[in-house]
Design a protein that fits this description.
There is one protein chain. This protein is an alpha/beta fold. The protein folds into 2 domains: 11-188, 3-Layer(aba) Sandwich (Rossmann fold); 201-342, no CATH class. 60% of the residues lie in helices and 11% in strands. The protein has 18 helices and 9 strands. It has a 9-stranded mixed beta sheet, sandwiched between helices. The chain is globular and about 65 Å long. Bound molecules: NADPH dihydro-nicotinamide-adenine-dinucleotide phosphate, the ligand CC[C@](O)(C(C)=O)C(=O)O and magnesium ion (2 copies). One magnesium ion binds at residues 197, 201. NADPH dihydro-nicotinamide-adenine-dinucleotide phosphate is lined by residues 31-36, 54-55, 58-60, 87-90, 92, 96, 113-114, 135-136, 139-140. This is Ketol-acid reductoisomerase (NADP(+)). It is an enzyme of class 1 (oxidoreductase).
Length: 351
């Protein structure tokens, strides 16, 4: 474990994990979507016995089978497994838990990649089982891509219920098997993971970033600039700037851009994302903390997602989407070329 004095919470790496905790166990991965396909394949390639649990007629079945995995129904998979990793959408998890609850035996583990349903009381797990979380801090497709590249994805580990005394050891072994311990696994609680994850995706990563991009695009286009220029300026280049922050923090990004960009950014950034934006962020956090957002999302799902569908359609029809599609098509050669280069590198490595 990394020296505790360096971090506020314990951080675990490969050397802190023990594969023995899951070596003789069967892991059921319920769902084969973004996280499910990554966990199932990474576990399998790490030598863990995996069965994928999918509903009858599942559209994901052929993908899982083509990837060389065994597929069963969620109930069959849970019956067979010692560890059940529940990787279907958060809104579906309570119903899936109800289906599989009887299959969970004393000493088994119910595992999550996000704490929503435990934290907001939508799943009340039975006694006698361990309840843990291994939450990669990344979209599932990167969890898979990083693993294949021999790299890791940072993750979180938390224990909600520890009936066996092995809950954390087993969760860390799982984190290692999906590649997270290669990068580092931070210990947290279900509450902290749930509330920070929801805040992050709403205020900054998904909600905040898209709102900023759209507003920036609209301001430029409304002022008479071409949509193509606007797209490049506020969306395409955003990735490049974020990559620099990801690699070396704010300082490396500021070092890399021109002094003019740096001065303008440092002075105008806080004008755009001002004190009001901060107050709005605090309100978002409060609604996450007091359960108001969770209740709204649960009710929205019970009503078959009317607001979600409307907002999603509006997003898909935004002008920036049409411009982006055209421009990305223009640069498709760049991706093809880098894929070709990767293939050549793979072939050379095989030689
Ligand atoms: N997306 C991400 O990268 C991240 C997700 N998480 C968490 O991981 C968990 C899984 O999320 P995510 O990977 O996005 O999920 P997905 O939306 O990608 O899950 C899709 C899978 O769930 C199955 N599924 C959907 N509806 C049902 C249903 N009613 N009954 C049974 N199976 C169903 C689908 O099967 P079918 O093919 O049959 O439709 C498919 O296999 C969540 O807790 C999420 O918060 C955590 C970190 C990041
Ligand atoms: C940022 C969105 C996320 O929290 C994630 C990929 O980590 C999610 O719920 O998908
Ligand atoms: Mg997240
Ligand atoms: Mg999330």
């Amino acid at each position: 474990m990394t020296d505790d004095t360096e971090f506020t919470q314990p951080v675990y790496h490969e050397e802190d994990t023990n594969a023995e905790y899951i070596a003789d166990k069967t892991v059921a991965v319920l769902g084969y979507g973004s996280q499910g396909h990554a966990h199932a394949q990474n576990l399998h390639e790490s030598g863990v016995d995996v069965v994928v649990g999918l509903r009858e007629g599942s559209a994901s079945r052929s993908a899982a089978e083509d990837d060389g995995l065994r597929v069963a129904t969620p109930v069959e998979a849970a019956a067979e497994a010692d560890v059940v990793s529940i990787l279907v959408p958060d809104t579906v998890q309570p119903a899936v838990y109800d289906q599989i609850e009887d299959e969970l035996e004393a000493g088994d583990t119910l595992q999550f990649a996000h704490g929503f349903n435990i934290h907001y009381g939508q799943i009340e797990p039975k006694g006698g089982i361990d309840v843990t979380m291994v939450a990669p801090k990344s979209p599932g497709h990167l969890v898979r891509r990083n693993y294949e590249a021999g790299e890791g994805t940072p993750g979180l580990v938390a224990v909600y219920q520890d009936e066996t005394g092995d809950a954390k050891g087993e969760a860390l072994a799982y984190a290692s098997a999906i590649g997270c311990a290669r990068a580092g696994v931070i210990e947290t609680t279900f509450r902290e993971e749930t509330e920070t994850d929801l805040f992050g995706e709403q205020a900054v990563l998904c909600g905040g970033a898209t709102a900023l991009v759209k507003q920036g695009y609209e301001v430029l286009v409304d002022a008479g600039y071409s949509p193509e220029m606007a797209y490049f300026e506020v969306l395409n280049e955003l990735k490049l700037i974020v990559d620099l922050m990801y690699e070396g923090g704010l300082t490396e990004m500021w070092d890399s851009v021109s002094d003019t960009a740096e001065y303008g950014g440092l002075t105008q950034g806080p004008v755009v994302v001002d004190e009001t934006a901060r107050e709005n962020m605090e309100e978002v956090l409060e609604q996450v903390q007091n359960g108001e957002f969770a209740q709204e999302w649960i009710t929205e799902n019970q009503a078959n997602r009317p607001k979600y569908k409307q907002l999603r359609a509006r997003e898909e029809n935004h002008d920036i989407e049409e411009v982006g599609e055209r421009l990305r098509e223009l640069f498709a050669w760049a991706e093809e070329e880098s894929e070709d280069e990767e293939e050549v590198a793979e072939v050379s490595a095989d030689d």
